Structure formats: C-alpha cells, structure tokens
Amino acid sequence: MSQPAGRSVLADFAAALAGGSLKCVDLTNTLSPDFPVIVLPPEFGACAPFRMEEVSRYDANGPAWYWNAISMNEHTGTHFDAPAHWVTGRDLPSNTVDAVPPADFLAPAVVINITREAAADADFVLTRDFLEGWEQANGLIPPRHWIALRTDWYKKVGTPDYLNMQEDGAHSPGPDAGAMDFLVHERDCVGLAVETVGTDAGQASHFNPPFPAHSILHGNGRYGLQCLRNLDQLPTFGAIIVACPLKIEGGSGSPLRVIAIIEEDAA
Ligand code: MN
User: Fold this and answer.
1) Domain annotation covers residue 101
2) Is the pTM for the entire model greater than 0.90?
3) Which of 48, 88, 182, 226 could connect to 128 by a Cys-Cys bridge, CB 3.0–4.6 Å?
4) Alpha-carbon gap, residue 78 to 258, rounded angstroms
C-alpha cells in the first residue's frame, strides 16, 4: 500500500529523497597527511596531522582484505568541536562528543556570506553590527540553526594561504565577542560552522576576550564545525546539515563527514 504524500513531514521527506528532488552536498575536506592543521605557538601541544598506515592490501598480511590503521588529533581535518573542548565548557553536562544529544547532529543552517569582506581583508572581523545589517537585507536568523560562515576559504586548501601564517601568526576571518553573544543569546544558534581551520579568527588570541567563538560557543553548550568546504553550494536559508561526530569516550571533538541536504534548485 503506498503512502499518500502529505500525510506526514517524514513521509514527504522520504518521498523527496526517493524521488531525487533533494540534493546532498558534501561539506567535507578529504582527510590526508597533507591536510593542514591549526598551528599553535611552540609552547603549547600541537595538533597531530592525519596518519595512515597500511595493515594489509591483498598480500601476505591479509590475502583477501585491505585495511589501514589511522591516527590524528580529534581536531584534524573537517571536524566537530564539543563544549568540553574549551575551558568555559568544562563543567557543562553532556559536553563531550559521546554525550552530545544526537538531535543536535541534525540541524538547519543559515549561510552568511562574507566572501567579499574576507577577500578584501583576511582579518575581517564579524561583528554584531554586520549581522544586524545582514538581517535587514536577508531576514532574521532563525533559532536553533548552524551559523554557516561562507568565506570560500576552502578554495585555498593546498596553498599556504589556507592557514595564512605570517610572522605574527595566522590571518583568517572570524567573529568578535559581540557577534558571538548575539548569535548564542539572541539567536540561539546551534553552533558556528566555518571553512577556516578554526571557528575563531586567526588573530583571535589578541581579541577581548581571547578566542571569543570558542569561549562563548562552548561555554554555552554550543558547537563548532571547522574546515568545511562547499558552503557556496548552499542557499542562504533552507539547508539541513548532518554532522555526526565519532562517539569517542570523553572526546573533545572529532573528525567527521558533514553533508548538507538542499532542494535541487535551492543554491
Ligand atoms: Mn576544533
């Protein structure tokens, strides 16, 4: 017996998936030893790059099977930041990747395009003023959305401009504390999703407070997604982001595959 369309939200969704009117966009960069990781000052522990060691490939170590051993930092490649990643979130409940409510792994996104600003100034700072102007032009940021910051920064992957390290550290765009307070407390965001290597600007160690995205997101139980790609393929409103981190016991974050579901003609 066939299910009549319109009987339920999920039935409509299933029909759209099966009928091909929804499109999946891969927001994930490929994990490889070459993918750049965040660079911290030398007095701090470093972020390990992705490593892969072959165990067997249809050979003496495994005549019929191919598999690898892998290792990396929890924050290598396209990855999820849990509240426990930051000291401000250390005492929150459900603050590690194994404890985050799974409902939070599926959320809509609003895409804020700062491509032009980031191209003109690698240190572009996203402010509350900018966001309020953006809302006047585009509409209110709805609650319980990922704030996806489109910079087209992913197009720099494979070049030194991705990390953009200078003598005084990294230079890449990010929000200030006023923008983060606004997004968390007045727009109830799920988290901040970016194409750069961190949710914070490259120079955010000099901000007040330092690292306002990490500090305010994670101190309020919100999440980060970093090293995304293809945000230019998403509509301003209407994309659904699926981002399920690995269930690492006590983990502060996790590499993951991130996809967006959009309507076929949405972008
Ligand atoms: Mn991270």
Assistant:
1) yes
2) yes
3) 182
4) 8
Number of domains in the chain: 1
Which parts of the chain have pLDDT scores under 50? none
C-alpha of residue 223 to centroid of ligand 1, in Å: 10
What is the CA(221)–ligand 1 centre distance, in A?
A: 15
> 135-174: b or e for each residue (b if 16 or more CB lie within 10 Å)?
eeeeeebeeebbbbbbbbbbebbeeeebbbeeeebbbbbb
CA-to-CA dists, residue 227 to 73, 97, 125, 156, 252, angstroms: 14, 18, 18, 11, 16
- Expressed in angstroms and rounded, the spacing between residue 16 Cα and the centre of ligand 1 is 34
The residue with tokens 């500090």 is 215
% of the chain at pLDDT higher than 70: 97
Active-site residue 218, yes or no?
Answer: no
1 inside domain: no
Q: For 224-248, what is each residue's pLDDT tens digit?
A: 999 999 999 999 999 999 999 999 9
CA of 205 to the centre of ligand 1 (A): 15
Three-state DSSP class for residue 45: coil
Decide if 2 is inside a domain. no
- Cα(216) to ligand 1 centroid in Å equals 14
Domain of residue 231 covers 9-263
Q: What is the CATH number of the domain that holds 258?
A: 3.50.30.50
Q: What is the dihedral of CA 111, 117, 118, 119, to 10 degrees?
A: 120
Q: Is residue 188 part of a domain?
A: yes
